[in-house]
Automatic annotation (TrEMBL):
Top-level division of the source organism's lineage: Eukaryota
Ranges annotated as spanning the membrane: 84-105, 117-141, 161-182
Main location: other
InterPro entries: Claudin (IPR006187), Claudin_CS (IPR017974), PMP22/EMP/MP20/Claudin (IPR004031)
Gene3D superfamilies, alphabetized: 1.20.140.150
Gene transcribed to yield this protein: Cldn20
Protein name: Claudin
Length: 219
């Protein structure tokens, strides 16, 4: 089983992954487009997210518009919404489960129960990392393909925003934490296979019966 310090390190990574996952899901900085124009006073920055589109003007004004219609959105945004929400839910479940299974806590019962809890929490973190990594990759691919498309005007082209990078980093944290928690169970099983229980050898009954006779009886 992994040491308590290693599990605690994985738990801290998972916490950063959960907070980053939630932030990436809610922030509108998935696509960013800065249009300076002919005058810097009229410069605006357009930001598009999964749930809202925001515009920041150089004069200090800031406005956001929610995306109420789901069917009118592109497929990759609909998929990103679903997978990011699932990633947040699974990572939250993983935090609750691994809190019970960690060695530094007094919850979860015996060692085998704690190992099973850590393994289940690790699976939740791995699935959460995969669900968070897929939409960020897909979203980034769409941004790059539109940016390289010559038929799209420059004013309609965007670049990846901070939420995309936050999603990538959070997915990496969750995957790393999940692998550490899952490996704790396999290490314990491997140690049990390498060191089988000792077998106690008892003397045979024939030796016990021979020990009962004295040599002087044969003299």
């Amino acid at each position: 089983m992994a040491s308590a310090s290693l599990q605690f390190f994985a738990f801290i990574l998972a916490l950063f992954g959960v907070f980053g996952d939630i932030a990436a899901t809610l922030l509108p900085h998935w696509k960013v487009n800065a249009d300076v124009g002919s005058n810097i006073i009229t410069a605006i920055t357009q930001m598009q997210g999964l749930w809202m589109d925001c515009t920041w003007y150089s004069t200090g004004m800031f406005s956001c518009t929610l995306k109420y219609s789901i069917l009118s959105l592109p497929v990759y945004i609909q998929a990103a919404r679903t997978t990011m929400v699932l990633s947040c839910i699974l990572s939250a479940f993983g935090i609750c489960i691994t809190t019970v299974g960690m060695k530094c806590t007094r919850l979860g019962g015996d060692i085998d129960s704690k190992n099973n809890a850590c393994f289940a929490g690790g699976i939740c973190f791995i699935l959460a990392g995969i669900f968070g990594l897929v939409p960020t990759c897909w979203y980034t691919r769409e941004i790059i393909s539109n940016f390289l498309d010559q038929t799209i005007p420059e004013s309609s082209k965007h670049e990846p925003g901070g939420a995309v990078y936050t999603g990538f980093i959070s997915a990496g944290f969750l995957l790393t934490a999940g692998v550490i928690f899952c490996s704790s169970r396999f290490k314990r099983q491997q140690g049990a296979w390498n060191y089988p229980p000792k077998q106690h050898h008892f003397p045979s009954t024939e030796q016990d019966s021979n020990a009962g006779y004295s040599l002087k009886d044969y003299v």
